[in-house]
Structure formats: C-alpha cells, structure tokens
Design a protein that fits this description.
The complex is a heterodimer of chains A (about 280) and B (about 300). In chain A, about 40% of the residues are buried. In chain A, α4 runs antiparallel to α11 (about 190-205) and α13 packs antiparallel against α14 (about 240-260). The two termini of chain A are about 45 Å apart. Chain A has about 280 residues and is mostly helical. Chain A has 15 helices and no strands. By secondary structure, chain B is mostly helical. In chain B, about 75% of the residues lie in helices and about 0% in strands. Chain B has 13 helices and 2 strands; from the N terminus they run αββαααααααααααα. In chain B, α1 (about 1-35) crosses α13 and α2 (about 50-60) crosses α13. Chain B is globular, with a radius of gyration of 24 Å. Classes of the chains: A mainly alpha (about 280), B mainly alpha (about 300). The interface between A and B is large, with 91 and 88 residues.
C-alpha cells in the first residue's frame, strides 16, 4: 500500500516535468493553426483551435524568405559537416596509425586547444573574416566551424581500438594507407562517425552567434537568424500565429531526426556533447 | 621519410584551420586587449596599456551584464542540477513509461533555442490583445498582472532562469540517469539485507557513487551558465542592453558588432575578464571536488 502511494507521487512528479517540457511544443503548434483574427480576439487563449487553418504556414513561406533561410541552413549544415568529417578522419588516422616525429607533442597541443572557449577566439575570427571580405558568404560562415579537436580525439580513440595486426597484415598485402583507412578503419568505426555527424548536424542547425556576426544580408541568414529577424521585423505587423508557424517549420527537422536516431543521439551526447 | 610526409599531409587541414581560427586568435585577442584607442577603420591605435580593462570595468552596461550573469549562474546551476537529480532518481525507480519520459525530457536538447524562446516569449509576454497565458493563470489564482518580458527586473530574471533551466535539463538528466544505471546492484542488495533506511542508502551509496558525474555537471553547468547569451536573445531580442538583460558574452558581441559595435579592444578585454572569472570558478570547483567527490 505504501509502495502504491509512492509510485503515484513518482509518476505525478515525472508527469509535471513532462508537461513543462511538452507544453511549449503544444502551444507553438496550437497557435500556428489559429487564424490571425481568432488569435487576437482571444483575451484568454483557448487550448484548442476551433477552426484550424494552414494560412499561417502559407504566410510564413510567402511573406518572409523562410524557404531561403531553410535552404541556407541545409547548405551550411551539409558542407560544414562534410568538411569536418574529412578533416577529422584524416587527423584521427594520422594520430592513431601513422608514426611521425613530434606526434605526442602535437597531440598534446591539440588537446590543450579543447580548453579554449569559443568566445575568446571569435573576436579575431570576426576581424579576419571581415578583412578577407568574406562577410555574407558561405565560406565566411563555414570555414571557422570546420575543425573540432574533441571529435578528432573521440575518433582517434576509436581508431586505436582496431587491432594493429590488421594494419600489419594489410601492409604485407601491399595495401596503401588510404585504402586501409577507407576499406577497414572507417567501416569499423562507423558508429562513432555517425554519432559525430549527428552531433555536428544539431550544432550547425542551431548555430546562432557566428552567423549573426558574419551575415547582415538576409540572403545568407540561417534559420536562427531568420527567426530573430521575423521576431524583430516580422510580417509587417505582430502576427503571432504566422511566427509560430515559422517556429514549427524550423523545429520539425531536428525533432524528426531525434525521433529516428533517438538512441544514437542520446548515446552520443552522453559520451561528450554539451549544447554546442 | 615517406611515412612522415603522409602523416603531415593528413594533418595539414586540421593544423591550418586550427592555426588560423584558434591559435592565432588566442594571441591576437591578448594584443587587442592592450591596444588603447584601436580604430577598426584605420586599424591604428595610440598606445598600449590597461585602459581597455579599466573602461570595461567602469562601463555601467558591463556591470549590469556581470550582475545578470552571476544571478543566472547562482540560480540556475544548483536548481537545474538538483531537479535533474530528483528526476533521474525517480526515473531509475520506474519501469513502465520510462523510455517515454526519457525521450520527452530530451526534446529541448534538439530544438532551436531561438525558435522555442519565441514560444516562451509569447507565453509570458503582455500584449494589447492579451496579458499572456502565464499572467492570466497567475491572475486566476488571485495574483497581480505581470509582464514578464517588458516588466519588472525580477519578473524578467524569473523567465530568464526558467528558460535556461528548461534548456540545460536534458543534458543533466541524461548524464545522471546513465550514472545511476551504472551503480553496481550489489551495493543496494547488501543495504537491503542490512535493512538500511532509504535516505541512508541515498546518502551513503547512491550519492557517493554518482558524485563524479554530479561534479562533472556542476563544472560544465558553471561554464555554460557563465557563457549565457542565445537564450537571452531568444526572450528579449537583440538589444539586450536596452532590456537590461545583457550578459557578459552579450556585452562582448555588442562591443564587436551591431549598433554599439566596432570596438574589438573593449570586446577582447571583456572576453578575457570572462575567461579569468570562469577559470577561477573552475579551479575553485576542482579544489572543492578533491575533498568531496568519491572516485572509485
């Protein structure tokens, strides 16, 4: 009997937090399907939409360049993640399998860079990119976010777990280093590479600070800057339902990605992601 | 020799990128912070010294930002860690719906801070049409009508901290749940045999066993909260100084860019002050942990 009351309390508390987490999502979807006039006529907002409409989604895509923001973010995310994978895989391979002078020293230097907060280097990067005339370009957006020492470290650890004998056997067979990397190491380390990719995609999709500093031309805005622009200059009037429609559109891709790759993402974050 | 070459070629892209965007800026930021009267247009300055630091420390906007940041840190770090611990403990005691709850709790991690912040703003903001859902709820229970977004400082700070906690919770719950799951069952069984009371099990077994992870969360929590910025923009807009809700990182960016920008020297000085604060706090945390954390 005592156990039963305890269970009720536990589930009640857990449900309260679940409601706090879910409510904003419910509210954004609900508001996005209310019409402009019905939203503004509700002094006490209703918890259901009596006559749901998709007009706000139409407005969100026509009145502001939401599709453009979306496209930019996809380009930014794909190119950044792709370049990051090349850089990270190559360096992890060099640190894990190749021998060269100064390897340990260089690796310690790399590791010490992990302690450098982004806020400290972003000032000079801003000046560098401005002086290179790369403001409002994709290269200016992408280049500074390509390397991640932490992911190099993560992948190097993974590469090192692959038995050295495999490498020696491949060498005896006359396999080149790169062939070995692509045919053996990358397939074996696929889980880690997938994790890194997903974490980077989340980071790119949500990045705000750097894009804000480096772009002021709407044609290069990413979704985060786009939503901020919508909030500040909006639809010509305070159109909350259309704003919420834009918020839903921006949130959906990552929520879907999360529901599909749930275990991978949670495992990856537990292994070393902080909110990027 | 050939092997050396392959290795360096593999490392070349990483070294180039890190060199240009991490190592060089690190020295450059120091140089900037000591160059007095640096002019962004002509790239000239008239002296070297500590003037930038003194300017920043005497700037009322910086003092406000410093105050806001410390309040956010002091409120959100203990609260979020505490609530996350409570939720994880409860999660570890149930079987049904556990996966469901874990999935739901993780959702804020994968959402765009700016986008969801807008929803929070709508919920808390007072407009010509409506007082906002939260304010109406408060009035329903007999409270006053409060505007959390443009209203009194305490109300704004409340939304700020609430949203910050909402955002940082998924990571903490995830880490603590996996830490709790990895505690060896044997300890609990032995405790049950000895008829140990529940609270004693918690203080003598659970807490010491997960203390390294709790401590990890406290450290990363402090660092993260000191760097608060995007969440503030999401709620109060880009002009944080006008809203009186700026943070240190926000101050750095405002100095760099935007209407009040064009002063990389002041920005550098402020960023280095922030770094010094975070470094000091982290060192203190590490010293405290050596006394309290139980490492197996």
């Amino acid at each position: 009997m005592k156990n039963k009351t305890r269970n009720v309390i536990i589930y009640a508390l857990l449900s309260i937090w679940a409601i706090i987490v879910l409510f904003p999502f419910y509210w954004m979807i609900l508001t996005s399907i209310k019409s402009y006039s019905s939203y503004n006529s509700e002094y006490v907002p209703k918890f259901i939409a009596l006559s749901p409409t998709v007009e706000n989604y139409v407005t969100a895509f026509t009145a502001v360049p939401l599709a453009k923001y979306f496209f930019n973010t996809i380009v930014f995310t794909v190119v950044t993640t792709g370049m990051m994978l090349v850089v990270v895989v190559l360096s992890a391979f060099a640190f894990a399998r190749l021998d060269f002078k100064g390897k340990d020293l260089l690796f310690s230097l790399f590791l010490s860079l992990m302690m450098i907060p982004n806020e400290l280097v972003i000032i000079t990067n801003f000046v560098t990119i401005t002086n290179l005339n790369m403001r409002n370009t994709f290269s200016g957006l992408i280049l500074p976010s390509v390397t991640s020492v932490f992911y190099i470290y993560l992948l190097k650890e993974n590469f090192e777990q692959i038995p050295e004998n495999l490498y020696k056997a491949a060498k005896v067979d006359g396999t080149s280093d790169f062939r070995y990397l692509f045919r053996v190491m990358i397939p074996i380390s696929k889980p880690t590479i997938v994790t890194i990719t997903i974490l980077k995609v989340i980071e790119c999709w949500n990045s705000y600070v750097w894009p804000r500093l480096i772009t002021d031309d709407q044609n290069y805005f990413l979704v985060s800057n786009g939503i901020q622009e919508i909030r500040e200059n909006g639809f010509g009037r305070e159109n909350v339902p259309a704003m919420m429609a834009a918020v839903v559109v921006i949130s959906v891709p990552l929520v879907v990605l999360f529901l599909v790759f749930r275990d991978k993402i949670m495992e990856g974050v537990a292994r070393g992601g902080t909110k990027g | 020799m050939k092997k050396n070459l392959t290795a360096w070629l593999c490392l070349l892209p990483a070294i180039l990128f890190l060199g240009i965007f991490m190592v060089y800026p690190l020295f450059d930021v120091l140089v900037y912070s000591f160059e007095e009267g640096y002019n962004f247009a002509s790239q000239s300055f008239w002296g070297t010294g500590l003037y930038n630091y003194s300017y920043v420390l005497h700037d009322p906007f910086f003092i406000q930002a410093l105050k806001n940041t410390f309040i956010i840190v002091i409120i959100t770090v203990p609260l979020s860690t505490g609530i996350a611990l409570l939720i994880s403990l409860e999660l570890s005691q149930i079987k049904a719906l556990r996966d469901f709850f874990q999935t739901v709790y993780f959702l804020p991690y994968v959402t765009n801070t700016l986008a969801v912040g807008l929803v929070f703003m709508i919920l808390f903001k007072k407009t010509a049409y409506s007082d906002g859902l939260i304010s109406i709820l408060i009035q329903f229970f007999g409270g006053p009508s409060v505007d959390f977004i443009d209203g009194p400082y305490a109300a704004k700070m409340f939304v700020m901290c609430f949203y910050t906690i909402w955002i940082v919770m998924p990571f903490k719950i995830l880490i603590l749940t996996s830490a709790l799951a990895s505690v060896n069952e044997m300890y609990y069984k032995a405790a049950v045999v000895d008829d140990t009371p529940k609270w004693r099990i918690f203080y003598k077994i659970t807490l010491p066993m997960i203390s390294p992870m709790v401590f990890y969360l406290v450290i990363t929590g402090f660092i993260g909260a000191f760097k608060a910025y995007s969440d503030e923009v999401a709620l109060f807009g880009t002009d944080l100084n006008a809203a009186g809700m700026n943070t240190i990182v926000g101050y750095v960016y405002d100095m760099l860019y935007g209407n009040s920008g064009g002063y990389p020297s002041y920005a550098s000085a402020a960023a280095l002050i922030l770094f010094a604060i975070v470094f000091t706090i982290t060192t203190i945390n590490l010293m405290v942990s050596r006394k309290t954390v139980y490492y197996q």
